[in-house]
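Go through this chain.

——
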Amino acid sequence: MTTDFITSSQHGVSPVVLPTTLRFGCWRVVSTRGQGRWHTVYCVQPFGSNKAPRNNYSLKAVTPGVPAERHWQAIDRLARRVMLHESWQHSGVAPILDAELDQFPFFIVEPLVPGQSLFQISKVISHWPLTKTLWIARQISEILNAAHHKGNTHLGLTPDKIVVDSGGKVTLLGWSNTHRFDQRCWLPKETISDVFTRAPEAFSRDYRAQPAADVFSFGTLLFFLFSGTWPTCGSSVEEIERQQKNLPPPDLSKVSRVSPEPLAKLVMRMLSKNPLRRPSLCSVLDQLVSIEIDQLGEQRHPSPGSA
């Protein structure tokens, strides 16, 4: 694959530097969407396209200047996303359209997912209607359950990874932490955003991926969706870890007046410190569907005195 990058060898690993032209293989950069520790995300178009730019492709590349000692981490996170695509695909997960992981420039290309993340939406809307929130929660559980059915975990579920389009369809992003069941994990633990939904057992250095960790993370997300607050809070990674491991989970029914009792009980089970006591994603999905149907029935036929 043709590249327009300058590379040089240092300590046995070539550092990533800025391209001499805004091109990655057959893709030309239209704009930069954001930059993180490991990756920079660009809006791109196929090189040579005569059409006006529509910014409808997203390219994630190793961030220019990432330290050589962290280079393998950046590539590993891209590779995990590609391996997931090769083993499993879902309508709620963006497909991989192109990838280069064997040589510079290291990158993957996906469709640009329309919509806003739950993190963005939460800044504008503090509380959604109950039935709409249940619908979004049910879609998230459907995606995670399908991944678990194929032996894949997510291990990075946060509000900024969940995108909702104008029609309410959910797309789940952020599969850079994905591991197969029982695979030993490397998970970042440097910032609060890395850990504030992480299951207690997943803080261990010897942790091996299990679906119960996704159940816990999804439980923290449900708690946030239905209450507007998080079950734990802290100003440091160490404080979040301590709370996740030691503090009992709060009762959703005491902080959210709109949460039906079955939902509050479900979230409490999902937030159990013991992974063996958490329900499976399949069970979570079944219960969310049941709760959603009951709420729709309540709207159509409200009980006496509920108005």
Confidence is low (pLDDT under 50) at residues 1-20. Residues 142 and 180 are 18 Å apart (CA to CA).
